[in-house]
Amino acid sequence: MTRQMESAPVSNSPKLCQIETAKAAGGIRRPGFLYIPMRILQNLKTRGWRYTFHATIMARVALARKRAVRVTPKPVIEGMVLNLQPGDLVEVKSLEEILSTLDSAGKLNGLVFTPEMRKHCTKQYRVLKRLELMFDEYHKSQRRVKNTVLLEGVVCEGAGLGCDRCCFLYWREAWLRKVNTF
User: Fold this and answer.
1) For 47-91, what is each residue's pLDDT tens digit?
2) Could you report the per-residue pLDDT of 134-148, keeping only the tens digit for each?
3) Are residues 129 and 56 part of one domain?
4) Are residues 37 and 82 in the same domain?
């Protein structure tokens, strides 16, 4: 997919797929105890011991500085964390409410709101399961996902994409409203 397509707002890009935008969804999950030794060995092999020594020391200094910097928290959207569980009845918020949570690229915390999801606005569904991990097929890595659920029977039909996989659509809890059943 081209860079122009990825950065276009939702309204101008009818051919977006959530799987294709997974890069921004979360950090790559690597086994920490293997990553650094493998990187050091690769640097020794390709660039020599002097570069490897300085790169290792500078990486540690940069990490220490990064931890020392205070990070400003992201703005909290009302209803962003609902702690939904399988079987909970939810209503998808109206299109206007959902669009107000999206950035200029049509995403909320890296997850795109696709045009195919619009037809589900203001409808009620049951939560199928919470989504904690997802596999990014394009980068061959596993990513953590927060405050995201799958809804029963809500799948991407590949409209306009020429795709017939029927992937589940990922729903941020900020796009949903829990329905109280008495």
Assistant:
1) 888 888 888 888 778 777 776 655 555 555 666 788 899 999 999
2) 887 777 888 888 999
3) no
4) no
Query: Is this model's pTM higher than 0.85 or not?
Result: no
* Residues 167 and 86 placed together within one structural domain of the fold: yes
Using CB atoms within 10 Å of the CB of residue 129, give its burial: 0 to 12 exposed, 13 to 18 middle, 19+ buried.
Answer: middle
Using a 10 angstrom Cβ sphere, with 0-12 exposed, 13-18 middle and 19 or more buried, the burial of residue 120 is middle
- Domain range enclosing 98: 3-27+77-178
Specify whether 157 is located in the same domain as 86: yes
The number of beta carbons lying within 10 Å of the beta carbon of residue 25 is 21
